[in-house]
Amino acid sequence: MTTKSIMTSGLFTLEPTDSVADALLLMHEKHVRNIPIVDQSGVFVGLFGLRRLSHLLLPKVALNLGKHSISDLHFLPDEIMQMGDRWHEIADQPVENFLEKKKKLLFCTPDTAFPELLSLLDESKDSSLPVIVVEGESQKLVGMVSTWDVLEGIIMGRLINDDNNQKPVS
Fold first, then answer.
1. What's residue 78's pLDDT?
2. Among residues 30, 7, 2, which one has the least CA distance to residue 141?
């Protein structure tokens, strides 16, 4: 099996100029963690996701600590008003200001086999990967795939094969 057989191709996307608030609303409505950002030609620009958003809501002092000290933030005030203030600072800004850029992301193609796909997902910081097709100099987004999609494909593939062969599922 390849990525093509399990990827989600009916994607919900935004353009780089759409706001962070638009992205959060779409993620909430569609129950997704990441929104692919594409230009008007469908060329993949980057991902905006809940992980990035939660990072943006951290106090600026936490951002300056670096990734090694970020787990020890007990000294920071736990005031929801401050997070609300930070939300208001970023909500109307375009998502292009806060994207996980292409050069930092892992990708797969529709022809990527399951073992390689699982390896890529394991290496990825996000719970899903963009599925792209290279067209000339650009990368067209054709789908997204998650670890859950792979596991479901393996399990459902086995169940379908077992049903066809009338073998019991153990």
1. 53
2. 7
